[in-house]
Amino acid sequence: MALAVAENLFRGSGADTRLLAGRSRRNGKLVFPCPGGSEGEDFDVVELAPEGTLWSYTIQRFKPKPPFNGDGDEVNFKPYGVGYVELPGQLIVEGRIVANDLSALRIGQPMRVTTEAYRTNETGEAVLTYAFRPASEGEQA
Questions:
Q1: Where are the alpha helices (DSSP H) in the chain?
Q2: Which of 118, 114, 104 lies closest to 140, judged by CA?
Q3: What are the phi and psi torsion angles at 137 (to 5°)?
Q4: Which of 24, 87, 89, 127 could form a disulfide with 52 if both were Cys (CB 3.0 to 4.6 A apart)?
Q5: In sequence order, what are the beta bridge partners of 95?
Q6: DSSP letters of 92-124?
Q7: Rounded to 10 degrees, what is the CA torsion of 104, 76, 62, 54?
Q8: What is the DSSP letter of 76?
Q9: Alpha-carbon distance 107 to 99, whole Å?
Q10: Model-level pTM greater than 0.85?
């Protein structure tokens, strides 16, 4: 079984993932992630579009310093993409990028939201976060 890294951040997994934003009841603006607690009472939960375009990105080539809590150490760390994906008419969202070939990423490339297990917890369960992948790659096994 897998656990989400945080509540009310996304629904589903893999190709069925949808990010959850908040629409302000006061002015109609979208925010991601949706605020929680008493502040969240002023927002309605909205599912964001499942696809967008790569707006900007970089490659994380070394293990980040704490509070990063992903699996692995400096020796077995695997580089990953980090970028901004523009969801048309909604928001630009920052997230991890998973791709077969990180060197093939291009600004303007169609991207799709997905999930990724980025660590395991103390009981050995996978902890999922949302991520984006090139839409042309389909869902990864």
A1: none
A2: 114
A3: -85, -15
A4: 87
A5: 83
A6: EEEEEE--S-GGG--TT-EEEEEEEEEEE-TTS
A7: 30
A8: T
A9: 14
A10: yes
Instruction: Pick the closest to residue 54 from 131, 1, 2, 138 (CA basis).
Output: 131
Q: What is the chain's length?
A: 141
- The residue whose two tokens read 């008419």 is 89
Nearest to 105 by CA among 89, 90, 126, 83: 83
Tens-digit pLDDT profile for the chain (141 aa)? 688 888 889 998 888 999 999 999 999 999 999 988 777 789 999 999 999 999 999 999 998 888 888 887 888 888 999 999 999 999 999 999 999 999 999 999 999 999 999 888 889 899 999 999 999 987 644
**Measured between alpha carbons, how far is 83 from 51 in angstroms, rounded to an integer?**
14
Instruction: Look at residue 62 and give its three-state secondary structure.
Output: coil
